[in-house]
Amino acid sequence: MTPDSFNYLAGLVKQRSGIVLTADKGYMLETRLAPMLRRDGIAGLDALALRLRAPGSTALAAEVVEALTTNESSFFRDGKPFEHLKKLLPKLAAARPAGHVIRIWSAACSSGQEAYSIAMTVAELGTAMAGKRVEILGTDLSREMLDRAQQAVFTQFEVQRGLPVQMLVRHFIQDGTRWRVKPELRAMARFQPFNLLDDPRSLGRFDIVFCRNVLIYFDAPTKSRVLATLAGLLPPDGVVYLGGAETVLGLTERLVPAAGERGVYEPARPAARSA
Ligand SMILES: C[S@@+](CC[C@H](N)C(=O)[O-])C[C@H]1O[C@@H](n2cnc3c(N)ncnc32)[C@H](O)[C@@H]1O
């Protein structure tokens, strides 16, 4: 692939998803895009770049971006955020008026493990939720992942990663070699496409946002923009969870780390922030 083709493909991916492809990602491009090239009879990445430059290539561009997303996920990933959520939810439920629906956003939900881990945490809390209803919205750029999340069916390998066996038995039904999320848990989550580069205000406000293991793929200005936007969706006692390798430090003053917690961020009090 010529440097010109690489720069064109990297520019297109960044513009459409925020994902930054550094010069050392040439090999990744080759391997991830190979099945698509074979299927469409495209000779190579230079030919693909040429096709993408032509008018009417929007669907192809979306496919390229989709192939370059990293969709790795697991149930109760990193553990700690879900332990924090378990303590936070009863407090939020008690602080909200009757009839309030607690809204939780899994903002790069991949195949749905994060959203269903949230749903299981809520279900396990039972009466501690003070009768408050919880609505979980899972969104992602990848249509393929959203389809999987919507199907709510996971392989033996997937349920073995991070999901305690008691929870597997309580919340899933075995279906051959696969495991299907029980309907009552499935009903707590809704999934729809959403690009984190877009304005999320159409999704409404949220009490809690999980935005984990996606900002790592973005450059600093994009991370700053996304984080500031997320802060704007939260009430003063709301929370944003980020991945273990992600932070708000140096990116926004609208969110601050929760005291003594890793990966948990709260809206800054207005007096505490200068911008
Ligand atoms: C590594 S997965 C993280 C899944 C889950 N949050 C977790 O921590 O297990 C990253 C997800 O971010 C999605 N993604 C990448 N860029 C995005 C964007 N601009 N808008 C929405 N989702 C995006 C990818 O499709 C992928 O499913």
Topology at a glance:
Layout: H1 3-17, H2 26-40, H3 45-53, H4 58-67, H5 80-95, E1 101-106, H6 113-125, E2 133-140, H7 143-151, E3 153-155, H8 156-160, H9 165-171, E4 172-175, E5 178-181, H10 183-186, E6 189-193, E7 208-211, H11 220-231, E8 239-242, E9 255-257, E10 264-267
Parallel strand pairs: 1-2, 1-7, 2-6, 7-8
Antiparallel strand pairs: 3-5, 4-5, 8-10, 9-10
Helix pairs in contact: 1-3, 1-4, 5-6
Residues 17-19, 69-73, 77, 108, 110, 114, 140-142, 145, 195-197, 212-214, 217, 243 line the site of S-adenosylmethionine (SAM).
Pfam family, one: CheR_N
Domain CheR-type methyltransferase: 1-266
Catalytic activity: L-glutamyl-[protein] + S-adenosyl-L-methionine = [protein]-L-glutamate 5-O-methyl ester + S-adenosyl-L-homocysteine
Describe this protein's structure:
InterPro entries: Bact_Chemotaxis_MeTrfase, CheR_C, CheR_MeTrfase, CheR_N, CheR_N_sf, SAM-dependent_MTases_sf. This is protein-glutamate O-methyltransferase. It comes from Roseomonas fluvialis. It holds the Pfam family CheR_N. Its EC number is 2.1.1.80. By secondary structure, this protein is α/β, with parallel strands linked by helices. The chain has two domains: 65 residues, Chemotaxis Receptor Methyltransferase Cher, domain 1 (Orthogonal Bundle), CATH 1.10.155; 193 residues, Rossmann fold, CATH 3.40.50. It is built from eleven helices and ten strands. Strand 4 and strand 5 form a beta hairpin. Helix 1 packs across helix 3 and helix 5 crosses helix 6. S-adenosylmethionine binds next to loops. The site of S-adenosylmethionine has 24 residues, from loops.
